[in-house]
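The pair is listed for reference:
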Amino acid sequence: MISLEHQAFEDRDVVALEGRLVASNSARTADELIAIFNDGRGVLHVDMSGVEYIDSRGLTALVGVMRRTQKEDGSFVLINVSGEVLTLLELTRLHEAFDVRSNVPTQRKSAA
């Protein structure tokens, strides 16, 4: 299961993913990310810090979203990618295709 939390800012949309991005939820997740991009600011940051695991279908979904945003002259950025997921991106060389950034503040609301 994966959950999405969307925050809209003046210059970008940030979507925090949490859980496992796998075959059973990858198409729905991609559709939701594309919908947020289409309704948003043309800049989509996907916070991957909460993604525990991603399979080949999950990677394919992210590539599809990236291609769609590029086709629309937008920007797609993976931020705060967790260690295991970053290792997988490096092994598949997808870190060269994606714009991957570390230590990006997401300005999430604190649960105080």
